[in-house]
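Appendix B. Extra example for self-study. Work through it before the problem class; the solution is given directly after the inputs so you can check yourself.
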Amino acid sequence: MENIKAYVQQHKDRFINELIELLKIPSVSADTAYSQDVIDTAEAVKESLTKAGCDYVETCDTPGYPIIYGEKIIDPNLPTVLVYGHYDVQPPDPLELWTSPPFEPVIKTTDIHPDGAIFARGACDDKGQMFMHVKALEYMVQNNELPCNVKFMIEGEEEVGSASLAWFVERNQEKLKNDVILISDTGMISNQQPSITTGLRGLSYVEVEVTGPNRDLHSGLYGGAVANPINILAKMIASLHDENNHITIPGFYDKVQELSAEERAEMAKAPFSLERYKNALNIADVYGEKGYVTNERNSIRPTLDVNGIWGGYTGEGAKTVIASKAFAKISMRLVPNQEWEEITELFTKHFTSIAPAGVTVKVTPHHGGQGYVTPIDSIGYQAANKAYTETFGVPAIPVRSGGSIPIVALFEKELKSKTILMGFGLDSDAIHSPNEHFGIFNYLKGIETIPLFYKYFVELSK
Amino acid sequence: MENIKAYVQQHKDRFINELIELLKIPSVSADTAYSQDVIDTAEAVKESLTKAGCDYVETCDTPGYPIIYGEKIIDPNLPTVLVYGHYDVQPPDPLELWTSPPFEPVIKTTDIHPDGAIFARGACDDKGQMFMHVKALEYMVQNNELPCNVKFMIEGEEEVGSASLAWFVERNQEKLKNDVILISDTGMISNQQPSITTGLRGLSYVEVEVTGPNRDLHSGLYGGAVANPINILAKMIASLHDENNHITIPGFYDKVQELSAEERAEMAKAPFSLERYKNALNIADVYGEKGYVTNERNSIRPTLDVNGIWGGYTGEGAKTVIASKAFAKISMRLVPNQEWEEITELFTKHFTSIAPAGVTVKVTPHHGGQGYVTPIDSIGYQAANKAYTETFGVPAIPVRSGGSIPIVALFEKELKSKTILMGFGLDSDAIHSPNEHFGIFNYLKGIETIPLFYKYFVELSK
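Solution. Structure tokens for the complete assembly:
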């Protein structure tokens, strides 16, 4: 595969422009105002797969947004790689913090990306990383170097829980049959040190509503005499962590997979500078569960975070009111062996139970997913490691990520195959934040590395 | 003054229509989007005073919204009554909870108001109650029954802290010279049982901002590893009350005027049904400071309430983000002898001190005011009581209100005169809430009662 480097160099401008076109479509799945854009993005992905060389591409209807399926079967007796990705993106707000409009991609250089990075919502998560696979297929087809069968399954609801994907996978196990699942929706340590994500956290996401009096009240006439839903919500949220920042929900930790001292020592070898971490976020200190270091708190430990809170008067000036209702969006990151539906139930039961008599509480589950850990002795992992080693010049380090790709556990359950998480993004890419970007270096390096995965996967499968 | 009843009956339709016209102008002082409307309302008030019979009316410029001053001096040797009111109103949101548009007044009957009530923002607080005084003046002038001098001072910033009023009063002590200040901006117990407010709570209103990481973060990659500003804000707010719902700010209670057992026993005589109170608000139980009953919690005790809170993702669906900032608007109701500037300082010092290392905190004082207690043996109180007794057939009961009219303490300090709070509103009028309304009975009864106050005040002053 000596040609791959040259091919990427020759076509990189087109590769970049094609991604930029895809990034211009605001496929925000969480907001129905964008629904037509989400559908338009699906169609754009479908076209790109046809152009890249799939011999069959299909828009699969679901209860939600469509799933784009594509395949190129060269020989039923050869292994099959199933590529998963998503074409939907996170909401762009707060818009005022973007230095350029989220859906008007521009290339800017940064300290970490001297060759430039594409700034746009979805540049890294996941349009950019998904599109690397489309371009890698193009290369392999154009140069007759596709060594096995390939299937693509690109969904549009990853940022809102992949409900339709679960529905689709359960109904299409034969069609999706494969030997390994390949996903680029995670990150790596740095552009000098590739890494492969071997663990993901699960997720339970709920919305809570605390209702006090049946109407907004004058805080002077009623203040101090009735339960204020905002004060109560704050009290309830605060009580979810104890003084050691352990989560207080009964049974929450019961199934948590504890790591051995050896495993934790192995993890500690990953390069990490607490100073650089704090400086990058401009915080005086880190904060988290007692007894664990930062790299453990955000990977092998379950957490509970409020993602949004609102209630009462939030406009200009002052309003002396006691709100009738207060709301919060709360998500829990889960680790292997924690069942997300069970955790959602435990949360609901506990949160409802701690409400004082003066208020009523409603908990609405949004979505969730299981945690996942992949073995590093699998053929898939070894093929990925050989590919990274060849293009980066150093072997990849296995790391546990704090993020969640809920459907990875689903794939193992329904499709009985392992997932390899070949991520090319960086923590600094600001995914889910204003000014999300994806390095040109990372984008092209991904396109260059992926075909090597196919090559080594087929070799090691023999 | 036998004519007053007849005069009110004869002109009530016009009285109602004139008030409705005033209520149509959205004079929301907290929101600059309405600034022209606030100014238009000032002009409308000015015209109404001229029409009612003031022989001098003036629009007084201030650093903020204008103050309308009007006077009718019939004899420098006679006593002078200074009427205070405000023409600005609270913001109308949440709009979706109004059964009719807040600035399109309509008359509807309710169980408490079988004769009908005017539904509109400001109907009771304070356009309706302020306008009663304008119409009472009209009656006294038309019928040559004005027994003394009268001055009007109607401001447009009461709902945002009366900053300009303080500025104005300090600079116009001679012009505002008076023997008693008359205000209708409070309530009474019921349409069968009038009451006079003898105590008001002070106010300290602040906005807090908690900043964590310098940008919104992916809650999967950072969750559990950095201080989440929303979780921290909730923790900090929760810590402001202890398990007995005492406020934990050091020094907060130091100057609180404690009532004697006798005084509390006297208060307990005011008719109050806890069941009706809970049913009216549709709450299972009340909530508040241990050791005090509802009527004490909302009147003689200081309180701390969050009036608004916001941060993170509050839109449709789910976003797994850790917000960079979280905000809250917090007000404290103060009782006599608590200095509001001092309380604001104590809050700021304490709130900043309890922030963990992972976040920074900013506290911005909005406004405040002193609490106030008026003696019931004053001529003004007795005149008011005689007036109520004559029009309602029963004497008024003195009550302490939980609300704040910050400028009452200012008047005593700057103008050296006592304020009489002749309120005609009811707790059920939903001031500061959706569907604010003011009973036709209450409006007309106020117009009928006010001239009697003038009569008895002059008689008792001889």
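Self-check: Chain B touches chain A through 101 residues (CB under 8 Å). If your reasoning did not lead you there, revisit section 3.
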